[in-house]
Amino acid sequence: MKLATLRTEHPDGRLVVVSRDLSRMADAAAIAPHLRAAIEAWDTAAPALQALYAELNAGQHGGAQAFDSLLCAAPLPRAPQWCDGSAFLNHGRLMEKAFNIEPAPDAQSVPLMYQGASDDFLGPHADVPLPSEADGIDFEGEFGVIVGPVPMAVAPAEALAAVRLLVQINDWSLRTLGPREMRSGFGFLQAKPSSSFAPIALTPDELGPAWRDGRVHLRLQVQWNGAHFGAPHGGEMDFGFGELIAHAARTRRLSAGTVIGSGTVSNIDRAAGSACIAERRVLEILDHGAPRTAFMRFGDSVQMQAQCEGSGETPFGRIAQRVVEAAA
Length: 328
Prior knowledge:
five-stranded antiparallel beta sheet; 328 residues; six-stranded mixed beta sheet; globular; alpha+beta
């Protein structure tokens, strides 16, 4: 099934079920007022939501309305936790080559992950206010999962059973601020503003064979200011979501509603392009000795949509945002 959240005065918004073709929606407040409540009561909420979804797709729901993603917040406007991995090792290897960084000795076996802010996720069409162009504004296209409760020290195979929904993410980054925070040993804070989400959160079965081995096997189409930027494939993850969830839960339990990200989608084949500006700049350093592509400016726009091969369908909908100067 496909779910979305409409913006309301309540910080968690209002839950709706969306038809498979993204044309119609049905209010789900009688089942759960918002997605966080549905995730926390998944065993009872999911069957009722699935029944409403079937009714909507069959054209049998009398209260159905046209779906408009412009009305959407992030599927989870706020979450108990947001942990973002770096599951595509190609991205890290490029950084290491460009900046002569020694790889971590266990980089092949232990995924990198940071804990970001989860109190203010942005919707798919929200303007992105940031304080300064000098901070190195960058987009990062990736996939993610929303999980139910996860026990501490869970095995990767068992961790996948906790996946409730799949999401598509733009994990905004401020590249000028990142190096200092990494050197501090305390991790990202200012370098990671609020992340953005595509409008649709969907159950893994919606992707059919495109969800396997804990990976989203779809290309992530990225456009910057209307021009093609990249279309890397999500299936090239070196660590699947089972491993990422297990890594996050190694020493603690994860609450229902925790979001786990894949990190920037990155492919070895350069023809796929990139899902972030930093990676393109690194390739330019390797090829030409210096970067040629600048980071984003105020007024720039970015669009992202995961696309099914053959049908061209965009199961998560689209992220389409503009960077603006934050009000003083």
